[in-house]
């Protein structure tokens, strides 16, 4: 935590090991009585406790040799080494643009002049810096990361030349390969695969995690799937419906996807597991196993380009009282992800995750949408090898407006796919690691508890967020971001950001803030003799023409 930030509140206590904060959580319960909605506010007293020590973090990527895996590894190395390189537009410098925690800010409060004080998101609480992450992982391709980076064609060549000596010695571990779960066109890459039974493969993944933990000296390991999209796995009673049945299915060689096998191995090793692809990795048995072992899981599918815009735009339209009636999303891309998605079953997994992103926003407005009504929603993905990692996304949003009118918004988005996904990978592991150091104790309870094993706070980074059973599913972009910010503020005993700015909207001030004067006189503009209006400073001008 930045040394210059310290909470001046008797309800917040700093020890050598923890930040302890008393927090009042306000909610409202609503009950329908005929035509009347009865609203009951309530307050819960909570104590947040956050470990201040940031451990050494290891991240193991499934699909380490793919476009995302090589790009995120290269980005961290480039930032750690402080690399610069030249392109046709001039000198470039390594950065973490696109990362919520490294490149965006939050409002901490108001300063003496009444202006907002914004700080980097990462400075709210003690957080791991991406430069300190240690990477390892698996891939069905044996290609070293230097060569895989060249194959991906994501980074500028001059940068690749500087990174190659640092990446060529990095080689992925052998991975699990079950051909029927991914497209047949991936068989040519599969020269680095584990042998043996399904149970033996899970044991090998566990051994790999143990080996990495011990050889690298990291304090904790997080495993993240950034490999190929798989087809959906059938949900079958007696196979994957419970943790016991899932473990038995692995022993007997039943239908279990590679991503679920990695999830099981990670959970058994006590490592958080994040699914960055759209398939249903977290079958009921995997979720039950995570809950039993008190291990975090999160997913599904990185929300990076077209879907992130959709979660903003549809939220804007519906919040403004405009009714989207047709959403058509077209994509074409030429990287290996696009090649894999050219197979129908793998495309279906992606189609589902990209289509469901608007559901909660539609359901929130019964004025615009009757029960069961929703917009027509079509998603198209095509494989065009020439464009490589530079994905093209075209969207058309047609909406009903006042008095039978229509409004159409069309947009074109060129996404550097892996350069958008890589900072999201970093944010996912950084926030997961932070959540492992936070616990909460309700008033009257003797023990602290952690977050639910299904780590829904990571929804901001996912197309199809996984939430605990019975929890509301939120896809709206700004609600998801506010959730992260306000939970982190709660860890410091700070109230949630309400954006009311009430102290600036009343005739008379009421805040006991030093050197932050609230003026009773309404600011006015004077007409000067030359016919021009006097400019205003801070919005306040005294009637005698002097600035305050």
TrEMBL record:
**Which keywords annotate this record?**
Cytoplasm, Inositol biosynthesis, Isomerase, Lipid biosynthesis, Lipid metabolism, NAD, Phospholipid biosynthesis, Phospholipid metabolism
Q: Which cofactor does it need?
A: NAD(+)
Q: Where in the cell is it found?
A: Cytoplasm
- Quote the cellular component terms of the Gene Ontology held in the record: cytoplasm
User: What Enzyme Commission number(s) apply to this enzyme?
Assistant: 5.5.1.4
Signal peptide residues are none
Q: Recorded GO terms, molecular function? A: inositol-3-phosphate synthase activity
This molecule's function is given as: Key enzyme in myo-inositol biosynthesis pathway that catalyzes the conversion of glucose 6-phosphate to 1-myo-inositol 1-phosphate in a NAD-dependent manner. Rate-limiting enzyme in the synthesis of all inositol-containing compounds.
Q: Which PANTHER family match?
A: MYO-INOSITOL-1 PHOSPHATE SYNTHASE
Question: What protein am I looking at?
Answer: inositol-3-phosphate synthase
Q: Which organism is it from?
A: Oncorhynchus kisutch
């Amino acid at each position: 935590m930045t040394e210059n930030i310290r909470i001046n509140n008797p309800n917040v206590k700093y020890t050598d090991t923890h930040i302890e904060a008393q927090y009042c959580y306000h909610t409202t319960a609503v009950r329908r009585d005929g035509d009347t909605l009865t609203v009951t506010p309530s307050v819960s007293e909570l104590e947040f406790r956050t470990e201040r020590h940031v451990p050494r973090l290891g991240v193991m990527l499934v699909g380490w040799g793919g476009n995302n895996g090589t790009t995120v590894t290269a980005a961290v190395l480039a930032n750690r080494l402080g690399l610069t390189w030249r392109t046709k537009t001039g000198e470039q410098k390594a950065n973490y643009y696109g990362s919520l925690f490294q490149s965006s800010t939050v409002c901490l409060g108001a300063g003496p002049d009444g202006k907002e004080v914004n700080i980097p998101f990462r400075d709210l609480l003690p957080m791991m810096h991406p430069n300190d992450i240690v990477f390892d992982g698996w891939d069905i391709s044996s290609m070293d990361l230097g060569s895989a980076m060249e194959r991906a064609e994501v980074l500028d060549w001059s940068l690749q030349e500087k990174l190659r000596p640092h990446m060529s010695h990095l080689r992925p571990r052998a991975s699990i390969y079950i051909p029927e779960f991914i497209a047949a066109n991936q068989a040519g890459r599969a020269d680095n695969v584990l042998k043996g039974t399904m149970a033996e493969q899970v044991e090998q993944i566990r051994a790999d995690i143990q080996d990495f933990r011990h050889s690298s000296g990291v304090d904790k390991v997080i495993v993240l799937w950034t490999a190929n999209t798989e087809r959906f796995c059938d949900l079958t009673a007696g196979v994957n419906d419970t943790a016991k049945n899932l473990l038995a299915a692995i022993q007997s060689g039943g239908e279990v996807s590679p991503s679920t096998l990695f999830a099981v191995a990670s959970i058994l090793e006590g490592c958080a597991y994040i699914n960055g692809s759209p398939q249903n990795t977290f079958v009921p048995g995997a979720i039950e196993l995570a809950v039993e072992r008190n291990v975090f899981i999160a997913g599904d599918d990185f929300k990076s380009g077209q879907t992130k815009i959709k979660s903003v735009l549809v939220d804007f339209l519906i919040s403004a009282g405009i009714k989207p009636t047709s959403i058509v999303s077209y994509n074409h891309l030429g990287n290996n992800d696009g090649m894999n998605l050219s197979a129908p079953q793998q495309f279906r997994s992606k189609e589902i995750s990209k289509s469901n992103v608007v559901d909660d926003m539609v359901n929130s407005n019964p004025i615009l949408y009757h029960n069961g009504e929703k917009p027509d929603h079509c998603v198209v993905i095509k494989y065009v090898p020439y464009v490589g990692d530079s994905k093209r996304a075209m969207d058309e949003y047609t909406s009903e407006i006042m008095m039978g009118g229509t409004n159409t918004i069309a947009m074109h988005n060129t996404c550097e796919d892996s350069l958008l996904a890589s900072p999201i990978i970093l944010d996912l592991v950084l926030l997961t690691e932070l959540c492992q150091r936070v616990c909460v104790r309700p008033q009257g309870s003797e023990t602290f508890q952690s977050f639910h094993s299904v780590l829904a706070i990571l929804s901001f980074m996912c197309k199809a967020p996984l939430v605990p059973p019975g929890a509301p599913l939120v896809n709206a972009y700004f609600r998801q971001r506010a959730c992260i910010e306000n939970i982190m503020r709660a860890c410091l005993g700070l109230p949630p950001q309400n954006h009311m700015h009430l102290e600036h909207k009343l005739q008379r001030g009421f805040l006991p803030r030093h050197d932050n004067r609230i003026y009773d006189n309404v600011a006015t503009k004077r007409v000067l003799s030359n016919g021009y209006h006097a400019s205003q400073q801070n919005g306040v001008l005294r009637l005698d023409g002097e600035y305050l």
